[in-house]
Design a protein that fits this description.
The complex is a heterodimer.
Chain A (H helix, E strand, L loop, with lengths): L3 E4 L2 E5 L4 E7 L3 E9 L5 E7 L2 E5 L2 E6 L4 E6 L8 E9 L5 E3 L3 E6 L1
Parallel strand pairs in A: 2-11
Antiparallel strand pairs in A: 1-3, 3-8, 4-5, 4-9, 6-7, 7-8, 9-10, 9-11
Chain B lengths: L4 E3 L2 E4 L5 E6 L6 E8 L3 E9 L2 E5 L6 E5 L5 E5 L8 E8 L12 E2 L3 E5 L1
Parallel strand pairs in B: 2-11
Antiparallel strand pairs in B: 1-3, 3-8, 4-5, 4-9, 5-6, 7-8, 9-10, 9-11
The chains are: A mainly beta, B mainly beta.
Amino acid sequence: KNEVEQSPQNLTAQEGEFITINCSYSVGISALHWLQQHPGGGIVSLFMLSSGKKKHGRLIATINIQEKHSSLHITASHPRDSAVYICAVLLEYGNKLVFGAGTILRVKS
Amino acid sequence: KAGVTQTPRYLIKTRGQQVTLSCSPISGHRSVSWYQQTPGQGLQFLFEYFSETQRNKGNFPGRFSGRQFSNSRSEMNVSTLELGDSALYLCASSRASPRDLVSDTQYFGPGTRLTVL
């Protein structure tokens, strides 16, 4: 079993829809990152969370430490949001980043 | 402020050769981490350097090595290349203090796409 599981693996949405991507982990962590990767490889760090909720524009990230679960929400989705979204956890011991397999999001206009 | 730069962007090598990839972090950033991304394994952590010292290492064979210079620039080297080493190699930098380690926001470079024939 992978230490970090993401769902769904693939997601197609219509422009304007509310999108949720989930991340569950089975290890102790000190922080969780949400990353965005566009075709061509460039990765952007969206959020780093250790508790609660963060918001940036149309993006919202939440984490529940007790349930070992995080969600990334996109409100009013747009075709430019089409990308791979990757959840990564910083292990509590060893300070290594472990990545989920990613969620491929396609937003159609 | 310039972002993280990686050179070269593309590289083709043959099995058995060695390769050196370079990463220049954002000015003022002292931590540099390296990652390998393949279609089969996804993103995997290689190692992290802070102030010229390797602080952490992933589960890769000894053929993968790295170093960091006093100006925070970092290089990674892969010796005796295998077909399975074909991947996108990404580096990321962060301010990270000695206590924060890799917990600071990381800024990724565009990657070096290595193809081993």
